[in-house]
């Protein structure tokens, strides 16, 4: 869709990255570090001082104490963290539960492990269907991947969902939880619930976080993994031979920047953008679905067209000059609910121009 947006000079609300400037404090730190002695390898697991600060952030955000050296790993983006975790912990013939619609990078490392991805659809409102999830888990199931807040839908799990997950993990001693929480600080009316809030899950969970998402620096490709020491040892073995260590200057820059920024204000920042975009969209024929977290807004076009969502999004680009993402591509079976995804992590001018075009639908 981004390629089509370029070809047709469309406004790109498809791919999930911001188009506004990075915090000037961060770029100033980066400029200063360019001439400092920070350009050689960091330790394999990450810059020690940054690991310490992630531990503090985890304690402040979730009330969980983790040991920096043994339980935290800096990765080359959240995707590398997901890949290394699955490659380290999933063996041939084992099964991994993926909840659809889902991020497209979950399945590849499962297949590369000669394991079996088991796709389980969420409910029509994108909440977990615990009846179908429980039915899909068996003694071969090694991992269940959860994504909260959820991409592409912006839906968030409730406390009762985590209670169901805890029961499931208790019932299957071999089952681990891979919790993709890259949008953990981009939440709105309801507070984000993390696996870090749930002590019963600590010894069986691996969490994935993203500095790229949190600090609007997706191109830096830097994130981190938190896992109990026995699991982390295995993940580090893959990480070591995959990338060895992550960009040194990026780690040093974040190590300084994290002291300057209040990450708790990030949700407010994006909530203003969500509310602004939603106000612009009131005059369109699109029906906006609830957006509880992330910087994505899902909308139904059922009142406008009977086209499948891929054809509809293509026509949006070619005839109306706005690029979006069809939700069906996030399903293994291409399930089509006539919904599309917008990224509202854009400046107000971009969102305003896009809404003007969408009013013509």
TrEMBL record:
<dbReference type="InterPro" id="IPR015422">
    <property type="entry name" value="PyrdxlP-dep_Trfase_small"/>
</dbReference>
<dbReference type="Pfam" id="PF00155">
    <property type="entry name" value="Aminotran_1_2"/>
</dbReference>
<feature type="domain" description="Aminotransferase class I/classII large">
    <location>
        <begin position="10"/>
        <end position="358"/>
    </location>
</feature>
<dbReference type="InterPro" id="IPR051326">
    <property type="entry name" value="Kynurenine-oxoglutarate_AT"/>
</dbReference>
<keyword id="KW-0032">Aminotransferase</keyword>
<dbReference type="GO" id="GO:0008483">
    <property type="term" value="F:transaminase activity"/>
</dbReference>
<protein>
    <submittedName>
        <fullName>Pyridoxal phosphate-dependent aminotransferase</fullName>
    </submittedName>
</protein>
<keyword id="KW-0808">Transferase</keyword>
<dbReference type="InterPro" id="IPR004839">
    <property type="entry name" value="Aminotransferase_I/II_large"/>
</dbReference>
<dbReference type="InterPro" id="IPR015421">
    <property type="entry name" value="PyrdxlP-dep_Trfase_major"/>
</dbReference>
<dbReference type="InterPro" id="IPR015424">
    <property type="entry name" value="PyrdxlP-dep_Trfase"/>
</dbReference>
<keyword id="KW-0663">Pyridoxal phosphate</keyword>
